Each structure stands twice: as structure tokens, then as C-alpha cells.
């Protein structure tokens, strides 16, 4: 299966221009599954909730999802792409998932980063997995990587590949994703953006280096830190179906959930809430 990422620099607020740029890059690629960055159509640094709301769209009727459906159909490709989702009185930082046949689903980011907490509502549902041929994939968004539970849940649900739309600003993720893939024996595609955004007093620099990682923690391909590019690798998804490390260890069969009760103990969370 040919999988990859679209890495580019969106221009803040220029939805049509950003869709057009992404479409050109997708048209130049030959892939079965492509991942686009978080908030690829709007840019990232909002200055108010009203501004984020004005740039948000309903899914799937909004123009960005409709464009992604058309692009997926024309290019016979599955797409995962981030956008601000308007859902009545709620605003989510979401990833839309489309196949060549149409809309498949939406993932709403469950771990919001920094000022996203001022604009967005936290995701309200567990991440789902979707079929691609005989295999399964799921989506997560940027800062979700910091919480190993996100990828573990997707992997336990059967995902062979995790599509990770990102707008990374910290330097840790690209290397950390090797461990996430190794501990779950899954592939991951991180699609990051490049460039910087200055909005009033606010400034953020994004780190690029989008990548595809294997279940053995190999970097199958990685983009530059400031280049606009599509990169695709041909992967054997079967590798992610086998959770065995050796003749004695199976990473999923060897888990001991009876000793992981603290993960579900809400008091651990409440103790840290202000
Ligand atoms: C991030 O979650 N955009 C860092």
C-alpha cells in the first residue's frame, strides 16, 4: 500500500488558496492514503474564538470536506486532513476522513494544546478505525501523540496505520513517534506543516519533518524542515498485523491490563485539575 504525507505552509485564513495548494500536491502523487496537516485549510494561530468560529466549517457539508471528497475521488486516494469543525454551538479541532467513494468520518482532537483550549471544545468521542482494503487505519491530531493512550487505543482497535495530522511546534514528536510505533507495532504517518505564523503579538514556528515510521521504528521517509512536498512509501501493512517480537513475546498478548487500573482511576486526573 502506498502511503504518505502532504507537507506545506498554509496561508492564514486563505481557505481557497490552501485547498488549491493541497490539491496540486495531491494531484502530483500516486498514493492509496495521504495525510494532510492539522488545520490545513485555515492556518493555526487564531486570535479569538470568533475568528476560529468564522473560519470553521460543518462536516461533511462544508466546502473543505466537499473539496476533499472531490480530490479523493479524482485521485483514487483516501485522505485524512485537519480543519476547524463547526458543530452547532461547539467548535472542534477535527480531522476529516474521506475515501474515493466519499465521506467516512471525523475525529475530534481529544488533547488540546496551549491556546487551542481557548478556541476549541475537546473531542467528545473515542477515535474510530476505518477500513482500507483488508486493513484498518485511524486518525489522531498533533498533541495527541504526547498521550500514549491515544495510539494504544487505536492500535488495540485494530489500526495497522495511524494517520497523524499535525502542526508541531515542539521538537520532540518526530523522534518520539518511533517509540509509539514500536510499542504498538503499527505504522504512522505524521503530516506536519512548515513555516511560521505571526498574528499580532503571537508567533509560532512549525517544524516540518513530516514522516512515515514503521512498526520496527524505522524512518521510512522524512521531509525537510521547511520544504513543501509530498512523500510516499510503499509499505507492507501485514507487518503491523503481527504483534510478535520473538517466539516468547507478543506485545498485545503480553499486556497485563489487570495491573493498569490506575489508567482508569479518575482521581489521578482530578488531583491535577486546578
Ligand atoms: C499541536 O497540538 N498543534 C502542537
Ligands, ions, cofactors: acetamide
Strand-residue fraction? Answer: 25-35%
Q: State the CATH topology of the largest domain.
A: Nitrilase/N-carbamoyl-D-aminoacid amidohydrolase
Specify the biggest β-sheet.
6 strands, mixed
Tell me the CATH architecture of the largest domain. Answer: 4-Layer Sandwich
Q: Could you list the spans in which at least 5 consecutive residues all have pLDDT below 50?
A: none
Please, what is the oligomeric state?
single chain
Mean model confidence by pLDDT: 97
Tally of helical segments: 7
Strand order of the largest sheet: 5-4-3-2-1-14
- What number of structural domains do the residues give? 2
CATH class of the largest domain: Alpha Beta
Q: What share of residues is helical? A: 10-25%
CATH superfamily of the largest domain: Carbon-nitrogen hydrolase
- Pattern of helices and strands: EHEHHEEEHEEHEHEEEEEEH
Q: Give the beta-strand count.
A: 14
Shape: globular
- What is the rounded Rg? 18 Å
Amino acid at each position: 500500500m502506498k502511503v504518505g504525507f502532504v507537507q506545506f505552509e498554509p496561508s492564514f485564513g486563505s481557505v481557497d488558496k490552501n485547498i488549491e495548494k493541497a490539491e496540486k500536491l495531491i494531484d502530483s502523487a500516486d498514493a492509496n492514503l495521504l495525510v494532510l496537516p492539522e488545520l490545513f485549510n485555515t492556518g493555526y494561530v487564531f486570535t479569538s474564538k470568533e475568528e476560529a468560529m468564522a473560519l470553521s466549517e460543518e462536516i461533511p457539508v462544508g466546502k473543505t470536506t466537499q473539496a476533499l471528497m472531490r480530490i479523493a475521488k479524482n485521485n483514487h486516494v483516501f485522505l485524512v486532513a485537519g480543519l476547524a469543525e463547526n458543530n452547532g454551538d461547539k467548535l472542534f479541532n477535527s480531522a476529516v476522513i474521506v475515501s474515493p467513494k466519499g465521506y467516512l468520518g471525523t475525529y475530534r482532537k481529544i488533547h488540546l494544546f496551549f491556546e487551542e483550549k481557548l478556541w476549541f471544545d475537546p473531542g467528545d468521542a473515542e477515535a474510530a478505525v476505518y477500513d482500507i482494503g483488508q486493513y484498518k487505519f485511524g486518525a489522531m491530531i498533533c498533541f495527541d501523540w504526547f498521550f500514549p493512550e491515544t495510539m494504544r487505543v487505536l492500535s488495540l482497535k485494530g489500526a495497522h496505520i495511524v494517520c497523524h495530522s499535525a502542526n508541531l511546534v515542539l521538537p520532540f514528536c518526530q523522534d518520539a513517534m518511533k517509540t509509539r510505533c514500536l510499542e504498538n507495532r503499527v505504522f504512522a504517518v505524521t503530516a506536519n506543516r512548515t513555516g511560521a505564523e505571526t498574528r499580532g503579538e503571537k508567533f509560532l514556528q512549525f517544524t516540518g519533518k513530516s514522516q512515515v515510521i514503521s512498526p520496527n521504528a524505522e524512518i521510512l521517509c522524512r521531509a525537510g524542515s521547511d520544504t513543501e512536498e509530498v512523500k510516499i512509501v510503499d509499505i507492507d501493512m501485514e507487518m503491523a498485523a503481527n504483534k510478535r517480537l520473538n517466539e516468547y513475546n507478543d506485545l498485545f498478548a503480553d499486556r497485563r491490563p489487570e495491573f493498569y487500573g490506575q489508567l482508569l482511576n479518575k482521581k489521578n486526573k482530578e488531583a491535577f485539575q486546578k
